[in-house]
Design brief:
mainly alpha; elongated; about 5% strand; about 170 residues; 2 strands
Length: about 170
């Protein structure tokens, strides 16, 4: 009788998913860290940066944490794709699985915080085009972070396939 087919994903496919996640997190980081607007009133100009809002700070922090983790995991995926051997064996597969799960939740909540802030600020009422552009850039960064979450979640599913099978 032939052995059952393997459900493990090709290391090259896992590497591609990690690289797409990495690229989306870099794009999010660039957009959110350069986002600012200047609003003019009768007597003064008010400059607003994305780091002035806690939700955007959280989004920035989640992108940085995700970038660090994904960069490390991308290096491990390159090693796995080139040598065919998994670094750390089955024990590292558990770390990979739980790390991917935690990262997915961090990225999802970071994107949700960015979207939520934009909705709340638009509900207050925005007058100038600069404020609209500021919120639109925040939404763009949250959208790219959400794309990063999707690919991180796919990577999490792939890492669950690599878990050691336990027979009881």
């Amino acid at each position: 009788m032939a052995p059952p087919p393997s459900t493990a994903v090709s290391p090259v496919v896992a590497l591609i998913i990690r690289v797409i996640t990495l690229i989306s997190l870099v794009i999010c980081l660039i957009i959110i860290s350069t986002n600012s607007a200047t609003t003019y009133t009768d007597f003064l100009a008010i400059k607003v940066k994305s780091t002035d809002f806690y939700a955007y700070r959280y989004m920035l922090a989640s992108a940085v944490i995700g970038l660090a983790y994904t960069l490390l995991q991308t290096a491990f995926a390159i090693f796995h794709a080139t040598t065919g051997n998994r670094l750390g064996g089955d024990g590292f597969a558990l770390v990979d699985f739980f790390g991917d799960k935690a990262l997915s939740y961090i990225l999802a909540t970071g994107a949700a915080a960015g979207f939520g802030l934009a909705v709340d600020l638009k509900r207050i009422g925005i007058a100038s085009d600069a404020e609209h552009n500021f919120l639109n850039k925040g939404n763009a960064a949250a959208g790219v972070l959400f794309i990063g979450f999707i690919f991180s979640a796919v990577s999490s599913v792939f890492s669950s396939f690599s878990l050691p099978k336990r027979v009881t």
